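2.7 Reproducibility. Because tokenized structures are sensitive to small changes in the input, we list the exact sequence used for DUF932 domain-containing protein, including any N-terminal residues retained from the expression construct. No trimming or masking was applied before prediction.
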Amino acid sequence: MKQLSERRVTQAEAANYLSRVFNDQDNDIILFNRAKKEKDAVPNAKAMNQVMSMFNGQGRGATLDAASDTAYGLLCSITEYVDHERRAMNTDNRLNSAWFGAGAKLKQKGLEQSLLLLA
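Resulting structure tokens (single pass, no recycling of outputs):
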């Protein structure tokens, strides 16, 4: 985690990171806004916008030196989104997803992509 907190991340790198985590895509520049045409819409744009705003200072602890503009901050943003912001039917479903289901897979993928930023 110390290495992740020392690895600075640009906005373009953060956008590519989120694209890889949410969509298994790696593009040079990702625009998260929803396009007017449905065929041009970026999948998971709303979730990526929410995570990006948490990374850019809206998340819990996002302004701390260890998290601000770092790979660790990206990972924390993904974790906060899954554990606290992602839609769920109720608290039990949210917890089950975060520990064992789709949320756990998303957090694991976020960790793997964060570690790739170190390489």
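Residues 2-118 form one domain.
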